[in-house]
């Protein structure tokens, strides 16, 4: 079964809003094991809308349209589908009643409660279509079946579209799918995307079921392994050897195989398991690392305090970095990073400390110490590891990568 | 001139990422005064990719493709464009050299530094195309001109695509537009989107030239005012009364009308003008506020150090918050926020200090102090203003909003 999404709305084409509906529906289709090959966005223009509906009907089994169901003359999604299918629009009495109720209920005692003539347009349905009730607005959805194909029409606002999809469309589509899909996400840190793919090129090339799909994220590489089977147990059986093989090849570079788990959560759990507390000493990242760690709920068990020591004076005052070290090696040096990590742990009485000092740019670089040079020091119970990194990109990117590498260094040190 | 966007990437069709590139490019095309009628998303599949490129060439003047320029076998955007145009791919020696440099530089002295065979694929260019250098990655972009049409190929990662678009593609496209478009971005902080829109509904309703387009960002509202004219002077003349009217209505809530200027930059400039230094004391934001301020190059003139005081002990130890204050009013209170802001400035010997303490959730809320309650204190030369905020949304959103409100509070205090 192939699915095609058509998002309708000039506000999308103007870039006024980002198309989160497309992401949501794509994810749901992947969950259902459908193949989604095209996402189309088109404005509220009858000619162009009819063109994309016709193309979609030609090449896809299920077409999901969102948007263009409002009460104004601009909104023409239903009208365009009806035109392409050569069907009439007829008044749906139940929808009419619900719209009437909605206005009465919502605007109780307010002015401007009158249903305008426009609103009745929303109660029109395509002949022989299934009308889907909208619990969160006045635009009903609908399903039109024709020659073993389905056209699904949904309202554009996510707060109306999503509940309607969950309640009515997902179960409708599930009946069309007889396979079960199970997937695992293997998350890797510390090696680049092309290196990671090269390492498993043979697996990627011979993949069929399960499939292996790589996703690069800033400083990380994720592989999604998906198996299709008749039941969940069988899907897990198919997944397991491939997942094991990836663990064989990437070893410690894999930080999790749990979809929702982030790098900072993995690090936090390692700390909690060991009953270790953590502190931080940040120079060029200026709080970003700690800010990310603090995004984990309940982090107060492991993190009590952190130091943002942007100036040399602050590095000496709070972390006890020696003046001689700064004079001899500079603030951006392995030696300073090491002293920062040692001093932070001592000052905060923490078991572990992460320190970052580097040149994020755009200025401040020299031939010996170019922009992008960052030293990351990780202190676990007095044992310090320092990593010299050379990052590319603008100030923000250098700082983003520094944070990820610091978290990864701590993860490896705790293992 | 009509533009069509083609986003390439299976990760978009799987719903793993949201297509922010489409929004960004659509907005830029609107700014340039081009008509964008179709946004297409397609996977890394040659047949389907060629199909959409052919369709786009048929109906649009400018085609912008993003994604599918990576080093793996999956990445086939250039190959597909070459196939449709019946052109060859040839090695671009300059790109090859840059990729070689990139790897040498980045992985200096590390193992696994070898450029894999895959990477050279990125140095291939379509015959007779203009190669666009990528300052933030290894995939160059390109422009192919054919029969008065332009095909523009850009890398998928936003951090690579956006700078390339700004620097090279925007000026290239601007030359194709004979109307001059000038726009101003009015950036507002401290009032909500619907309130802001209601305040200028009359202006929005009667708009034609200049146009007024609202953009809501987390905690901020931006209005883009765009005038089209035959020359720049005329466009400015059209803009000015509308911009003045917005300043009349929103007053101090407007923090800038300069497109690139961020809230943290406005605050930094106010501090620099007054020769004031700043420090921070963060609890629930855990470094995010300072991390954002440090994103400004040259921030060392105003910010020397900051305090991440997540625990009560740290609030007492570094900021001198009194135990009685914490016992009597709690860590999340106006009193604690005030003492944090006073203590931080004293400890860091800074002229100004921002302090944040709040309940970001998901746990820790009570009836009296619910999740989303955040106190922000701003100390300028000993004069402290405390703001009690009630934010909505998840942990990340509460923290994001806290950062924006803190910056805005400092901005207003410095004015």
UniProtKB/TrEMBL annotation, chains A, B:
Domain spans labelled MoaB/Mog: 4-176
Pfam families registered for this protein in UniProt: CinA (PF02464), CinA_KH (PF18146), MoCF_biosynth (PF00994)
Origin: domain of life: Bacteria
Residue intervals passing through the bilayer: none
Cited InterPro entries: CinA, CinA-like_C, CinA_C, CinA_KH, Competence-induced_CinA, MoaB/Mog-like_dom_sf, MoaB/Mog_dom
Family in the record: Belongs to the CinA family.
Record's protein name: Putative competence-damage inducible protein
Record organism: Variimorphobacter saccharofermentans
